[in-house]
Amino acid sequence: xxxxxxxxxxxxxxxxxxxxxxxxxxxxxxxxxxxxxxxxxxxxxxxxxxxxxxxxxxxxxxxxxxxxxxxxxxxxxxxxxxxxxxxxxxxxxxxxxxxxxxxxxxxxxxxxxxxxxxxxxxxxxxxxxxxxxxxxxxxxxxxxxxxxxxxxxxxxxxxxxxxxxxxxxxxxxxxxxxxxxxxxxxxxxxxxxxxxxxxxxxxxxxxxxxxxxxxxxxxxxxxxxxxxxxxxxxxxxxxxxxxxxxxxxxxxxxxxxxxxx
Length: 261
Fold this sequence. Notes:
The protein is α/β, with parallel strands linked by helices. Helix content is 29%, strand content 25%.
């Protein structure tokens, strides 16, 4: 059994494995953007704890989970928990979630009103046409009291699951890449963070309704099931949740990337 020694890093106590040999390099597959930017800070923290991280950036998260399962990568940090849970379990090497990472929040935007409470009766609200994104948008509208969803619709809600719409809002499904443009002609739109940022909209600054940090769609850090108890996994998670990383997230994104832990 490897001995563990504890260090005090700022206000947070962190434990690190006492490696008998030089620490192995852990390859982490990440999505370009906030996931990669945050993991770069994690890498610096982990290095001080004796863990070497190598970041592998892939657009769209291409094949990251497959490569973790195959042993070509060691960890995945690019996907939200709902998408991760919906994937078929990989055999014979399944992946498991070991920690929440950050939430890239979906938000409600409007160029006509300053708050969701000021949306007029009969307002037109654009939502994503894509099924998974539509479900997330509907849950956000439900959580802000704009519509009511059928009990049991859960995280796979569709427009057919809207059972209450007392203000007569018109939900307008559009492709995600057209939602921001729709703000010029509709009252509001529900847009995910990547598409909002491309339109120079920042969730915390520009939205009228923001997804909670502890949404079911928070990002996850995933590893092979057999590695769940490995010392490097504990060090990686502790590094991710360290004070330097917390400070970076707040300073860099100012709540437009949210921390659910």
